[in-house]
Amino acid sequence: MSSRINPTQKFCTALVCSFILFQGCVAWPLLTGAVGLAAGKKGGGGLFFLPGGGTPTLSRVEISSPNSSFAKTTSMSLVATAAYSNGTHKDITADAVWSSSNSSIISMSAGGQATGTGVGTADISIAYENKTAQISLSVTSAPLSSISISCINQTDNLPKGITRQCTLTGNFADGSNQDLTNDPNATWSTGSSAIATIDSTGLVTAIDAGTTSIRASYNSFNATNLSLTVSSAALVSIAVTPTNKSLALGKNQQYTATGTYTDNSNQDITNSVTWNSSDTIVATISNTAGSRGFLSTEDMGTSTITATLNSISGNTDVTVTAAVLESISITPSSPSTPKGRTLNLVATGIFSDGHNENITDQVTWSSEDNSIVTVDNGSGFEGRASGINVGTIDVTAGIGGIEETVSFSVTAAVLESIQLTADDSSIAKGTSTTILATGVYSDGSSQNITGSVSWSSSLTSVIQLGTLTATPKKQVNSPNSGSLGTSTITATSGSISGTVDITVTAAKLVSIAVTPTNPSVAKGLTKDFTATGTYTDSSTQNLTASVTWASSDTSKATISNAAGTEGKATAAAIGTTNITATLGTITSPSTTLTVTAAVLQSITITPSNPSVAKGRSENLSATGTYSDNSTQDLTTSVTWSSSNNSTVGVSNVNGTKGKATGVSVGTATITATLGSVSNSITFTVTSAALDSIEVHITDSSIAKGTSTLAEATGTYSDGTTSDITDQVVWNSSQTSIIQLGVLTAAPKKTLTSPNNGSLGISNISATLGSISGNANLTVTAATLVSIQVDPTNPSVAKGLTQNFTATGTYTDASTQDLTTSVTWASSSTSKATISNAGGSNGLATTLATGTTNITATLGSVTSPASVLTVTAAALTSITIAPSPTLSIAKGRTQNFTATGHYTDSSTSDLTTQVTWSSFDQTKATVSNTSGTNGKLTALQEGSTQISASYNSVTSTDTAVTVTAAALDSISITPTNSSLAKGYTTPFTANGVYSDATTLDITAQVTWASSNTSSSTISNSSGNEGVATAVAVGTSTISATLGSVSSSTNFTVTAAVLVSISVSPTNSNVYTTQTKDFTATGTYSDSTTQNLTTSVTWASSDTGKATISNASGTEGKATGVAAGTITISATSGSVSGNTQLTVVFLDTTAPTVSNVVSLSPTTVRVTFSESVNSTQATTAANYKLALTSAVSGSCSDNSNFSSASNISVSSVSGSGAIYTLTLASSQNSGTNYTVIVNKSGIQDLSGSPNNLGCANYGDFVGQEQLKVSSASCASTSTVIINFSKPIKSGNNVGNSAECSSTAECANRYSFVGTTDLGTINSAKILDGVVCGGATADSAKVCVTHSLLQTGAQYTIIAANNVNGDGFDNTSWGSIRDSGDSENIQSSPRDRASFLGCGTSPVNFEDGPISIDPNGSTFGYLADFNSKIYTGPNNVGNGALRFAYDGSGPESVQFSFVKDTNGQNSDTSNVSSNSATTRENSIAVPPYVTLGHSGCTQNDATLANGCGPDNESGRGIFTTGSLVSNPYIFIAAARTVPSGSNYNFDYIYYSNDTSTNLNYKYIDMGSITGTVTAGTSSIAVLNDRVFPGFAKPSNDGTGTGGGLNAPDFGFITFNSSDSGSTGNCTAGSNCDAYDGTNGRRIRIDYMPFFGGPSAGGNGSINNSPNWGYYIGVDSSIVFKDRIYAANGGLHAVGHNGSIIRSNSSSPINACSSKNNCSDWTEVGPRTNQKWHNSTTNNWFSLELAKFYDLIPADRAFAQFAEYNDKLYVTRTICIQGTQASGIRTTAGTVTGCTDGTDTNRRAQLWKCDPTLTSTSTECDSGDWTVVGDDGNGITNFGDSTNKTITMVAKNGSYLYVGFDNPNGIRIYRTNTTNPGSASNVWTLVANGGLTDSTNVQQIFSSVSVNTGGVYYLYVSVGKNNTPVRVYRQQNL
């Protein structure tokens, strides 16, 4: 849409302006400068007002007048307007109260009609809702002389359908005039209403062509008619369609011109207009007859197309976009390739402008039958067709509905290579081997072609060719007289050949001889043997240290294979055994070793260093050790002696032999002798020791609250005694009875009965060391101590009584009321007596004045005396009340009282006893009548005196004044009345007085309403008692005068409707649009109410606008056609109205017409019409999403909620075309969708239209230059494939080509399993290099100096970035052929490939992979038929490759964000607050799981932490859920939040793409707040059982934890739906304890779990004392879960092994030591577990909880092998045991400090059949495998100290050790390996092939591929890229 105003818009604008001007003259003052607003304010307001929010309040009222003066006898209409607080206005002309300051000059009538009644000036006022306004008007004297009509453009014809405004002017005698157009006395008409009509405002409407006249009259005056000619409808505007069309270059378009006429009719005027294109370079349009309006595109751009007829024109924009594809051509046109080979097809697009373009990478390729041919659509491989099977099918290339199909033929496979496999790659001199030649064909099939190829040997002096075997295989021989070395054997068929190297090594061993022959040796002694080998070349060699020695009967003798003692035989039992020596497959003839009886060697005395207290004895024992290591008790056989019998005596008497007795303090040597063998020990006698303690208590029984003393006497081993009271530890068995006090100086121990204690017996004990004594102490009831008498020293009048109480105080400080128990006594019974009688105990009676002592006695206790004084009593005065004055109204009464006062200060009421008198009984009387004594009656106004007398005592007078009668009550009228809300009514109050008179007191009372929110009542002068009804309800109206009040009920009923106002007033609406009107009712109480839904709405002309009365849309007006109508709202007899103007509107919504990728970082969006450029250049209104990820729909704009894939940085453009600049590059060939926010962009219509559908457009992405792939062309050449053609030129800056090693080193770098030497050259494929590879400007042939193996390599291209493994900023980047793009950053600057050499199949062949990104650790996982190794160092991906090492590729991670707060915890969501990552890419998804040292709340690839701010490595493994494989990953939270780590998430995925999209498992309260990281995962029965490491100490401080380790499950098992519920596999999972999973509380399991909540005082029976406690490893074995962990170096607190009791262990441990679903099965009682009785072997303790490697764990791995369960255990040798829980993290020297000097290895095996259940492991089922005789597993190599791997691989069991000299891996295929080490074979050498870099084992996985088992291991060392090796079982 053009920004210029077209004629149609001008016409409409003129209409609207005319309408506004006319309405302004009538309804709103335009000449406010002269007349002003009636409120006295300058300015005015617009015609249209918008309603505000909330309830508006009236701000002011205003008066407007069309003129400031008018003539006498004439009338003028004034307008009153109310202005409200929200900016709205209301016409109140009919509602306001009008008045004139001088009605003789101007008289006012209702409705604002002013009539001039006399010459002069008067002020006109209005009043409305307490607001007023005023205007001054003048009345002139000139009389009206004539009236005249004038109209706008009155001489011009009026086109049909158009209106014209006419004016009626009154002309006065003085030459003045006045506008009478709207005067009520003016009358308008036309000569013919069929031709034209005129309304009361003078507006003429042309109806039909013809001539008529305009007529007007005013009272008796008639105006001269004005002629009017109505012409045919005139052209108003031209619309050109289609509007804002976007056409591809080469396309044509027919345009149409439609004329719109004044009568709103339309007509096709395409052939009448003149067409024009503003830019004929872009488009031309025809004016030739027959093709008028036909547009032809010429070039890209925008042109304005205009259609013009006379002076009216219309236009639209046309945008010519790039030419569009019209057809496709495929070359070659008849493609053919052998089965198994590929052929690159090329798709050429023929475009609408006739040009051709290679669109191979843009089309979608498809095959009619993928079983014959597949066609690749992958990036960099588009159009690559692969022959699968012989046949012919159709191949199609298509894009955007355009397709082309060719017939593709696949011929038979052809030979591509020959692989030679030698039975032995190395043979001994003089031996032979055979070689198999396998032909590998283009379809991947292979065939034995040994017999059909030609054979040759490169060195016949080393290897000579032999005959074919029957297989057939080719025999090759090493001649006996030949040379050592390597010969290359070549097999050739045509131009194809293959080679294999055969190495001839030194002569091979033939036989072994063992010496001496048939020796003998005593049992227990040793014999050295020697082995001599004879070789194929007849040479001999001493092999004693090389062979494996064996004894046929190890029960008779064993023979050593340990280093340094090889061939040393040890005699074990009397008899014979055969000794043999074996090396490889050669075993010597046996020699017989005869074992004779053993002889005594030594005597051992136990205990070895005895010590006894003087007077005590110790039984010594003597044990003989014989030459066979057997032992025998010789205690009674030896002769015992003491070196000093005065110190120690030792017995040789039968029955007490060996009993040594301490005689005196000192030492002596004790000797045991048998024959010539003896041994001595030192015997120590210490001071006498305490034997017993006797406790003596001074009192055996004490009263409660008292104390006594105790002493302790010790009796010693030598019979002596001693007072040890101050040495012992005292204890009371019942502290509620007896509590321990201090020691006295004696010393004696104080024993106290507490005051609040109990009665009874407590045992008092005294303990010193292990000796104690005791005695009982009895506490009896407390005894009385004292008595207190109350009151103390009272005074009582004679004849009165006094109550006394007695309170007893007891020994325990308690008190008791003893009033009725004591004996009371008075010292002077003549003055007062005191009672001991029941019921009156303690009651003293006064008899005579004076004093007496009152005491109370109980037993021997008597109280102190209380002195009772008796006084006399007498009346002294009388007081009366009221006094001293009284004022009383006439007619009222008052009761008087008289009080007598006595000398003892007592008083008495004498009212009925005194005589009352009044001084003046005419004024008031006072009664002496019984019953009314003292009652005063007021008779007359005046005064009198009132007094009272008794005997001779008279009161003081009270002066009484009688006043006028007083008001007694009030009567209110009317009573219980009602009134409508808003009205008033008067109330009357009548007073009734004390003398029975009445009076109207309406004006004197105070009126009040109890509910002023319902009604108020006035106290204002003149309006007293007038009530106003405020709100519906009831209230109580009260009248009060003084203290007198009366009330009545008053009911307020609902207010009644007075008027209706309609808003907005005088508004407009566009055609087809709606406007909501509101009807507001004003009620009698001046309140308003929204009546919109209750009134009846009406339109004065439904042809122009309709208004709804339908429910839900009441008051909604819809514009139909241009014009002005009246909208009215009616309720009953009340109505209101306003005017509505309908204006024509463009209602066509803009849409997205086209989206095109201009470059990798720019996209052009074209709209269907011009849009608001401010909105359209706002980047936030656009999203660029993957087409496959778009969700929602355009209709509700929900598709704009789709996840953004690339952020939009900025937008430029104008009109209908805009260019988006992206924050990062597109991916080539990826389908993208640009989505535009419908609510954010509008067109340029008068009422802007929001963006409509479609709001999106698809396009295929371009991408910045990258390395797409690489492949070997030969063993010395590699083809690197770029995503687009690259810059050429030999040794030219930024080119991909080079010819010197220096130049090539700037451009490329190799990383791999072997060194590929220097890069010699790089050349873009030209059909010659790389063996004639097809010319391709996007591929480069790179030549290197050293040969490839068949392992993985990575080639990296320069991209002007440092720090990514190939620094090249000093040179720059290889660039595209247009020299405009650098290569993207890592990993898009590199590609991995498989070398063309022989692929490693055994460890000794070298690694199959070295991580190209430098990751230094990697778990292995077999997933998606590939090997995955990860996560990488920064946690954002992994590496994967095929089983043979081919297809290596990086895999990126993608994690969703958990926003679902669960378990009523809204904070339980992913905590990483980052919203973008590098290049402003939006997150989620997150792309990293974090790493140690990552930045919190950062989501970038390099520095970001995980979705929940994870920051350490955890687990990477696989498992099956609902029969589908998943790959799991979990991390650790190493940065605490406050004092907790709050680890909460593991993630899982079954995504097989290179972008692993992970779902989350939120574990909520299944993990504790201190849980820090995942240490193991096992999956059983669709339940995931993760184990977590966490700190475990005292529960305080940062990381202070309890309840370790955490262990639980999350269930995906539908059978759990009725209990915990279950998650759905493949979806995000929200779980917490009891919902979708459970926390098992394995901390309750003894040995395995640590302290529980409550610290050391709240623990299982034997808690794990480690600081970090985790689950080292876990496994599913025979449908049971097994888990193991280490702990602190203390027996019983060192961790263990546990097992589930079923396949569904879903019940949590219920309490400490109570885990019904789990059993502890560790072999802790096995002597070799802790090396008992020394007990210095302990399972390795975790030193950290994240970034763990197997060497950090005590139990690195479990494995199942032949129905047995194996587990590795690394122990730490520690000389002392810990005494309690470790409270801070720490390391152990030689174990966890980075050294291994104190480590040792064990391999434990469980055979479930040994005890109890044959399918479950129990503690007695475990034995050590490969036992060196001491319980250690090292297979004869003492440097094997850390065991980190055990794995089953087919029929073999593999075991691995970390070793600083290079790892060691052993294997055996023995079905049930036991303690023997000779069944284990070292695979390859130490460190495999690289002892420097391969010192640690990280992970292993077994894979069966093609019937062959391979074991893959990931290995390395710190800061070295991880390597993967594999070993086959052949």
Write the layout of secondary structure elements.
Elements: H1 7-27, E1 58-64, E2 69-71, E3 75-77, E4 79-84, E5 89-91, E6 97-100, E7 106-109, E8 113-116, E9 120-128, E10 131-140, E11 144-151, E12 158-159, E13 163-172, E14 177-179, E15 186-190, E16 196-198, E17 203-206, E18 210-218, E19 221-222, E20 226-231, E21 235-241, E22 245-248, E23 252-254, E24 256-261, E25 266-268, E26 274-277, E27 283-285, E28 294-297, E29 301-309, E30 312-321, E31 325-331, E32 336-338, E33 342-344, E34 346-351, E35 356-358, E36 364-367, E37 373-375, E38 384-387, E39 391-399, E40 402-411, E41 415-422, E42 426-428, E43 432-441, E44 446-448, E45 454-457, E46 464-468, E47 474-477, E48 485-493, E49 496-505, E50 509-515, E51 520-522, E52 526-528, E53 530-535, E54 540-542, E55 548-551, E56 557-559, E57 568-571, E58 575-583, E59 586-587, E60 591-596, E61 600-606, E62 611-613, E63 617-619, E64 621-626, E65 631-633, E66 639-642, E67 648-650, E68 659-662, E69 666-674, E70 677-686, E71 690-697, E72 701-703, E73 707-716, E74 721-723, E75 729-732, E76 739-743, E77 749-752, E78 760-768, E79 771-780, ...
Parallel strand pairs: 2-10, 12-20, 22-30, 32-40, 42-49, 51-60, 62-70, 72-79, 81-90, 92-101, 103-111, 113-121, 140-144, 144-148
Antiparallel strand pairs: 1-4, 3-8, 4-5, 6-9, 7-8, 9-10, 11-13, 13-14, 13-17, 15-18, 16-17, 18-19, 18-20, 21-24, 23-28, 24-25, 26-29, 27-28, 29-30, 31-34, 33-38, 34-35, 36-39, 37-38, 39-40, 41-43, 43-44, 43-47, 45-48, 46-47, 48-49, 50-53, 52-57, 53-54, 55-58, 56-57, 58-59, 58-60, 61-64, 63-68, ...
Domain BIG2: 57-138, 143-228, 234-319, 324-409, 414-503, 508-593, 599-684, 689-778, 783-868, 874-960, 966-1051, 1056-1141
Region (Disordered): 608-628, 1458-1477
Biased composition (Polar residues): 618-628
